[in-house]
Amino acid sequence: MHRAPLPEHLTRGSFSLRASDKAGVTRTSTEAKDLATVSRGIRMYLGSQASGLSAVRAYTDLDDASVLSHGSAARVLEAGLPGWLENDWRIHVARRRGFSVPRRANVVGHLLTLLPDEVVEYDGVRLTSPARTWLDLASQLSLEELVVAGDSLVCSHGSDFPRPREPKCTVEDLHAMVARHPGIRGVRKARAAVELIRVGSDSQPETRMRLAIVNGGLPEPVLNFVLRNVYGAPVLWPDAAYPAQRVALQYEGAHHNAADQYLRDIRRADIAAEYGWLEVRVSRFHLTGDRPAVVSKVRAALESRGWCAK
């Protein structure tokens, strides 16, 4: 039992003994049975439903030098990650070179050369900036996975879209970060990946669809394309498009199985046809294998509209 109620902000997630000291909580109270010792100097209220940012908050509050990095920072930033990294339960914590490597239970410690603008704060938690986080991921991810992560960070949609979206960083930021750290591990892969990153991809499959199409020898589709009516009002937002041939690509994810979404998909296809566009629907099955079926499907659509390979 606590001798006094635990301050509310400490019940919402993990907290360090440093934070509880500042809140006036005695060390005896931090040993109460309703608190779990997550790691040395870190507690969590057992009644907390904390996840995400609140669950890892304490790890950057242990001292003024620690920041979340790599996969942990990427999850906070909602970067598109492969399943094996998305499900990595370990917490990646970094300090600047010159400090000791973070060592504690469930923590992967790193020493990084971090410039002042490469550390940001999200809701009181310090982490590597979006561009720096992406660069650090280059040592862990494949080229395609790194492009997927980059696409997710730079994705933006304007006010003409049903759900406008602000980017976490820009392609220019990624270029600058790569140039700033020419000797960092994975930099050659990062240089190749940044040339393939585009603005406008909403999901990992959309990025993989685009890469498969380009790797298959087809022209690169346009992202963030808006089809407008005669009055200039937006009526259709394809995932990718070939405006010259009036071919629209739509990736159909799991959410398209819902009955109401199915009806919306039919209406979307009707609108495309009404304006003279051919809609190509792509599923995850079209993106698998060494020769993804999406390539032949898109090629057939383009050729039906008069396109021919040079």
Helix content: 25-40%
Query: Got a strand count?
Result: 13
Rg from alpha-carbon coordinates = 24 Å
Q: Which sequence of SSEs, written as H and E, runs from N to C?
A: EHEEHEHHEEEEHHHHHEEEEHEH
Give the helix/strand class: alpha+beta
Give the low-confidence spans. Answer: none
Shape: elongated
**What fraction of the residues are assigned to beta strands by DSSP?**
15-25%
* Count of helical stretches: 11
Overall pLDDT = 90
Q: Multimeric state of these chains?
A: single chain
What's the N-to-C terminus distance?
77 Å
Strand order of the largest sheet: 1-3-2
Biggest sheet details: 3 strands, antiparallel
Structural features, described:
It is a single chain. The protein is α+β, with helices and mostly antiparallel strands and 310 residues long. 32% of the residues lie in helices and 17% in strands. Strand 2 (35-39) and strand 3 form a beta hairpin. The chain starts with 13 loop residues before the first strand and ends in a 6-residue tail after the last helix.
